[in-house]
Amino acid sequence: MKFLFDSDTWQEIYGGIRKNKTRTIITIIGVLWGIFLLVTLLGASRGLENNFKTIFGDFATNSVFVWSQRTELPFKGFQKGRRVRLTTNDVEILKREYKEIKFIAPRSQTNSAITRSFKTGSFNVSGDLPVLDKVQKKDLIYGRFLNENDIKLKSKVCVIEQEIYEQLFEKDEQPVGEMVNIGNISYKVIGVYKNGNISFDGAAAYIPFTTFQQVYNRANRISWMMITANEGVDILQMEQDILLTLKNIHKVDPEDQRAFGSANLAVEIGKITGFLTGMQFLTWFVGIATLIAGVFAIGNILLITVKERTKEIGIRRAIGATPIEVRRQVVLESVFLTTVAGMLGIIFGGFVLFLLDYFLGSGPDPTLINPTVDIPVILVAFLILVVLGTLIGLIPAYMATLVKPIDALRDE
Amino acid sequence: MIRINNLHKSYPIGKDSLHVLKGIDLHIKEGEFVSIMGSSGSGKSTLLNIVGLLDEHDEGDYFLNGQEIKNLNEKKGAVLRNKFLGFVFQSFNLISYKTALENVSLPLYYKGVSRKERQKIALDYLDKVGLKDWASHLPNELSGGQKQRVAIARALVTQPKVVLADEPTGALDSTTTDSVMDLLKDINNEGMTVFVITHEEEVADQTKRIVRLKDGIIISDTINIQRNPVKTV
Predict the structure, then answer these.
(1) Cβ contacts of residue A340 below 8 Å, gap of 6+?
(2) Cα distance between residue A22 and residue B69, in whole Å
(3) Which pLDDT value is given to residue B230?
(4) pTM value?
(5) Which chain B residues are within 8 Å of A12, Cβ to Cβ?
(6) CB-based contact B111 A315, cutoff 8 Å
(7) What is the DSSP letter of B10?
(8) pLDDT tens per residue across span A302-319
(9) Residues of B in contact with A316 (CB under 8 A)
(10) Which residues of B22-56 are buried (b: 16+ CB within 10 A; e: fewer)?
(11) Which residues on chain A are in Cβ contact (under 8 Å) with B154?
(12) A409 in contact with chain B, both atoms CB, cutoff 8 A
């Protein structure tokens, strides 16, 4: 291994590389492109992944949503097409029956004009329990969210979305304690929240569930419910069980597919994370394939140049270079080229990621968040590159020593 | 220095084999200046390749500096070439992207001499062939005669036992031929064994011993008394 630290070895390699400029450049571009693609693609897909993570970040991902529709099958004397209604009673039963339920939030929603002095707008109005904050974290800018006291007292209070606040209030005006009219009833604003990237309610004003039921005359009927399971629960199984229970309560045929609708957030997110996994796989596949192609290009070019350099190698051997020394030179040339090209590719890729981050990674709605590649990943890719470079360098090196010096030196 | 007994060599050509050397007996002592004469196809290049350890013989014995050459592997061959032999080729065979100095110092690199030492020795030898001022020039900036002198310096730089020259003047005009031959003579006068292959009578005439080869056998082996032939009218 001493030769690795011998300046003469490198002098010889530098000479060989400098002489064959075209070959050197083509080789470097081949590998550089491969590792550049790998770094950029990995970084970009990481950025996308991070973005998805922030989108789902404030959401309990093991959630199921259930709502009611019309039946599609006649059952126990009922005609088909009967309207089924979820009620608070269902919520109580589910809460009692299912130990795996962590939170259950009944939702009652409507649409209404919200007015403050001369300003007005049409927004969603939602009657909710404080537990909603647990299922879907509310990012509060001012004040607080609904609490148990509001429910108990059927207070006329509301928590409004930032958009409502911006439409009804002056800029930087203190909203907490101010009154707004929802329909014809006056409510006191107790908080302002900001929607995340995913919202099921749009720009909504949350009022206490009990208040809503009374004001809008809903009795115990609710629009839909959000259920969050405990950690580690088979959410798909729970979804099916809950639907069966509901069908049982409401005297719906167990085979009825239409009476209750449900959506499983875990499944929806699974689709996207599956897509992300697929993309990551594709990234690796494309990147490594390009890398290998680049290394093969190096091998190919080295092979050609070995043929071109047959004479030079013959001279070297005639004046006393042993086959090992010749081989070593060719292999080191290959390793040196792949290493330099790899490093350039990493630097170039890092620079492009920096640009991506600069142009796409900031602002209110970034496409990529923190597009990075792990250092170990880079090191592994780099190591693969060097190993491949060595292996592929062995072929031309072997070819170089196969030619007898006498054949190499023979004139024409 | 070189002792060859009953040397045979044949090359396979398709299914047949071509018998090139048919029993050569040659004995060259230290300090001799020998030329091998022969037309093309006489086997003189083959003989040189075998003597230069670039090729292996089929039959017979070959002793170089008292060491029997037999079943040499490439590595051993390379070491022996580096240690005992210096080559001068017809087409110079300098490495085109290296300067004259680098070309001359290359054998020392493979010998394992340190960089500083190499430069110094190589420069001495370039000086000896009168090309000290051309040390930093690339081969394509040199004339044919200069290239051959660089090649001779390269052959001498490891202080070999024998200098093998294969048609050293084949690519040169008569003036440069004389200067190159003078250089070889000087080297020989300093005690170096020089082994020249040529088909030019004028070149052979300047050596001390002429061995004529024809169809793979030695037809004459004479001491050349007229080292500096006087022109007769």
Answers:
(1) A28
(2) 43
(3) 47
(4) 0.64
(5) 109
(6) no
(7) E
(8) 777 777 777 888 888 888
(9) 95, 106, 110
(10) bebebebeeebbbbbbbeeebbbbbbbbbbbbbbb
(11) 319
(12) yes
